[in-house]
What does this fold into?
Amino acid sequence: MKFAKSTNNVKSDSNYFIYGSNQKNYKKKGFHFYLKKDWQLYLLLLVPIAFALIFKYGSLFVLVIAFKDYKILKGFTGSEWVGFKVFEKVFKMRDFGKSIRNTLLLNGLTLILGFPLPIILALLLNEVKNKYFKKITQTLLYLPHFLSFVIIGAIAYQIFGLASGVVNNLMEAAGHVRIPFLQEDTHWLVTYVLISVWQTMGWGTIIYLAAITSVNPELYEAATVDGAGRWAKCVHVTLPCIKSTVVILLIMNLGKIMGGSFESVNALMNVATTEYTNTIPVLVYRLGLSNGKYSEATAIGLFQSVVGLILVVGSDFIAKRLGEEGIF
Amino acid sequence: MVSNINSKAVSSHRRLWTKSRIHNLLTDILIYTFLTVIALTCVLPFIHVFSKSISNEAYVIANKIVLLPKGFTLDAYKKIFADLSIIKSLCVSITVTIAFTVLGMIITIFAAYPLSRKSLKGRSVLTFLFMFTMYFSSGIIPEYLLINELNLLDTWWAMVLPLAFSPYNLLIMKTTLQSNISDSLIESAVIDGAGQFRILRSIVIPLSKPIIATLSLFYAVGRWNAYQDALFYIKQNTDLRPLQLKLYYLVVAATESFQAVAEGSAQFTNPEVLKASCIMFATIPIICIYPFVQKYFVQGTMIGAVKG
It folds into this structure.
């Protein structure tokens, strides 16, 4: 046994030696050496690099029009440089301030309501012992995540519509007046937030359920011996064990608070409500593609991207400070 | 005497047991009820719209449909299948989804395999180059102007090429390859004289079938559901509208009418029924494949959640 171990050591030592000397050789070689050695790998990489350069980095060059007075006829290079004038103009727009407020409002409310719900659902699902009930419930809860915003929006009008929505029909039958769920500003805001929360709540449980399954079962056994009931186990064992997952997800979600989904708002908005539907992406779309003010729209989009990047990097920094594995 | 003691012991034991059992049972009932209600909110809306779509128009106009269909008829669906533009949209969606998924997977594998090799020079620089695009986008307008500049507006390519490179899917693929395919395996293949293309074809792809299936589904469902890019890029050429965009114009924005209505057919058709059946027409494909793909989605999401 001892003998075998020692030969093993010798072997790995000699291996290490060879490997080490090889590495020294590598270090002496220039880039062409690696190109020759791994040329096939680099050849493979050419395809994704081409796509990333053209479609992701290519559009970054178009960002210069945020600093130009862009006219389609003059093209990107022919248009005049105007420095930060476009930004000054945009920051003075009433719609701009409103769009930031609306973006923060919609995302903030969705986060406040939508963040705790998946945790609660995951804790409850964890208490369910019946395998089939659990499976069916999960399947139903995940369903809205798989459907497009167009379908969700269309169904929302079927359910909450003013003239023929089923909820209003039922309320009228019960002697209540019809409520403009989607046709009045404040009602729209509440309905939008509820629909967003509803669509994401089931899918959000996945990560918490994974975290809960990795909790050491001995902790539950010890808690049972100490006389803890289900509630006590949930509060004093499960929750502390998934705390780090909760914290990191909260931070990551806060980092995304300036982001805005165009699709979800666009699928639910209508002419009757304009107060809260005008989020940053909607404003960009309206200004740019409907009114042809490309420079202004690009400037607003750039503003959102930069603030979004700062928030994401900042939240990642905080997450790392808390001892979690960040994203970078 | 003996039996007396026994019965006493049993009864006291049973009483204790019953008390905790009642408590447990009540908690269970509460939990099961709450979860059932929440789960029902996820499925009842679809049942309602489905019932509407197969009901007689008269009942729908009278707002009589709640959860069960009344006056069963498939007229609305017949009209949808007679409406060539909707069928065309379905074909566009299917074609674009298949092309997009194949292209997306080629790009993802071609990027993920080299980047998963630790010996590759410039690996971290390239990874950063790819991942940066996940956190900073240039926005709607620059992307639109780029597509315009490339002359891709109103073409099939506008729905296939721009989103085919997905940094998120690349990250999942790379992480999986790093943990599934050991360096020693690749090294031994190299010693046996296999080139990297051969290794990719004969070792990496066969060993990564599950993750390839998962990511293909990510690409396919993502493409099927997206309508934003089609809304921006497909303007004049109405034949190229994918199903989601068609549904958007027909039902959500309601700027377009159904052929059956527009042509003024003798029989009056209430758009409400047509709307409902159109929604179901777009929903049913997803619901049909949903039970089979759900498992893969959950696995993929968990891998993705490990990093970002």
Observations:
- The two ends of chain B are 70 Å apart (CA to CA).
- Residues 20 and 26 of chain B are 10 Å apart (CA to CA).
